Amino acid sequence: MSERDQAFVEFVETANPSLRRTAYLISGDRHKADDIVQDALYKLYLHWPKINRVGNPFAYARRMVVNAAYDGGRRPWRREVAIAAVPDRPLADDFTAGHASRDEVLEALRALAPRQRACVVLRYYEDLSVEQTAEVLGCSEGTVKSQAARGLDTLRKAMTRRPSPAL
Amino acid sequence: MYNDPEVSAQLHRLAEAEPLPAFDTSAVVTRGRRGLRRRRLLGAGGGIAGVAAIALAASLIPNLSSASQDPGVAGAENSQFEAVPGLPHGEAALFVDVTPAHAQQLCDLRYPGEHQKLKSSTARTHRVGSKPSFEMQKPPAKTRRFCQIPGGDKPSAKLVAAAKTDPLPKTAAGQLRNCSVQTWVDVTGWRIMAADRSETLKQAQIIAVSPSGRSLIACDLDSRGGPMTEMTNTLFSRLQAPDADRDPILAPARGKKWAEMFAAGYGGGSCDSSTKKCGKGSATAWGRAPAETATVEVTLHGKSYRTPAKDGWWASTWAIEPHTWTGDPKKPEYPVYKAYDQNGKFLKKIGG
């Protein structure tokens, strides 16, 4: 294995759990999240020497993952990708089973608008500052503040509805 | 803005509650090496430029005057295709709900010798043409990630060989043959509504409708991996009962039944913030626009590409050449698609 590949593999082994969890929270789908991370890491590989030289490849990878995760579900021009990846729907009679096991907080997170969800995940899961979040999402700090506040409000309401864990 | 430890704890709980299967790092590296090789090859052939847009002549479109023809039937009545267990021939296979167990059998038949297991999912049924994921093995014996659920028409060895020899045909008959080989659904009698191809990308988009008018194939031919490649984004849609969750339809305007469709993909073409230079890329799309649409234009970073539309149907396969862009590369742009009528009057923004 070349030196380039060795360094890249070490990076991927370290970074992939965090990237996949972030992608999962934003996209709401485990398989889609893994595909997004695979694609982002593939692109990272192509430019690895330059990115590794500049430093902080994790921030670069996270930015790609976050934007793909929240952008993919929003933009209609990405629909063909989604259609290829999304598994077929459960039948209607699956509804009761899904309802029984659903998580109010997860449902509330999934119901947030894509940018709100990305703001909430970056601010409260990744612990990024408002400035860092704005930079990752390519929007203003004011947008991050307002979107995160709305998302936070929705999640708090869901948390109050969430039953206490059974003892 | 202030911190909220409770929400933070809930998000960590959600993220960690979801099991993380082993990540296939070697598959990423293998794919990356292949990508690098492809980029080097493309760089070597950098003199090739331009995009060929094809408006297929009416004489090349099969069955143009046979709108009432019965759905295409293959298999027993067509020696070019063999029957597939458990599936009807031709278009009828598209309306069958395929159970996960049957899907596994079909994938085993489609990719003989690979013995890859489909990922279990919440899906109770699949459709012909859908692409559920395979479980990735580590180290991977194979790099295939998806199974394209085949239809009921297994192509003959002769057809497969013909598709392999000419992966990006210029004739309608050749294109429909290759789409049939790729999907195992005999679409050789379907009517092409729109098509476009790019010699640079070595890709073509073929949009065809079944003789019954009930089904559509958006066939993505990609000569880089052959007609059976998983790189394609081919899909089938049910035109008479489209499903917004599965079919790329846009909601019809109030009081109108004309459901517009739009699907697109975009890759590469990113811009360097210091040099303002943008690299090679591709933007492929297809759809059904308002019926009076004569041209669809896609723009990105000040560049544009136009493709003709007929009866609202259009397809676009644009190879974006390296260029300089004076906008802000930190604010990524995406392709924007707009419809124009025959007088060049702007009709609507389709997507982007």
Could you explain how this protein is built, in words?
The complex is a heterodimer of chains A (167) and B (352). Chain A has 167 residues and is mainly alpha-helical. Chain A contains ten helices and no strands. In chain A, helix 1 packs parallel to helix 4, helix 8 (114-125) packs across helix 9 and helix 8 (114-125) packs across helix 10. The termini of chain A are far apart. Chain B has a domain at 190-351. Helix content of chain B is 18%, strand content 25%. Chain B has helices at 5-17, 25-44, 100-110, 157-165, 172-183, and strands at residues 81-83, 153-155, 191-198, 203-209, 215-222, 235-238, 249-250, 260-268, 277-278, 281-288, 295-300, 303-310, 313-320, 323-324, 336-340, 346-351. In chain B, the strands form four sheets. Chain B has an eight-stranded antiparallel sheet with strand order 7-8-10-13-12-11-15-16, with no helix packed on it. A four-stranded antiparallel sheet of chain B has the order 3-4-5-6, with helices on one face. A two-stranded antiparallel sheet of chain B has the order 1-2. In chain B, a hairpin with a 4-residue loop joins strand 3 and strand 4. In chain B, helix 4 (157-165) crosses helix 5. The interface between A and B is large, with 59 and 61 residues.
Q: What's the structural blueprint in terms of helices and strands?
A:
The complex is a heterodimer of chains A (about 170) and B (about 350).
Chain A: H1 3-27, H2 30-46, H3 48-54, H4 57-72, H5 79-85, H6 95-101, H7 104-111, H8 114-125, H9 130-137, H10 141-161
Helix pairs in contact in A: 1-2, 1-4, 1-8, 2-4, 4-8, 7-10, 8-9, 8-10, 9-10
Chain B: H1 5-17, H2 25-44, E1 81-83, H3 100-110, E2 153-155, H4 157-165, H5 172-183, E3 191-198, E4 203-209, E5 215-222, E6 235-238, E7 249-250, E8 260-268, E9 277-278, E10 281-288, E11 295-300, E12 303-310, E13 313-320, E14 323-324, E15 336-340, E16 346-351
Keywords (chain B): Membrane, Transmembrane, Transmembrane helix
InterPro entries (chain B): TAT_signal
Keywords (chain A): DNA-binding, Sigma factor, Transcription, Transcription regulation
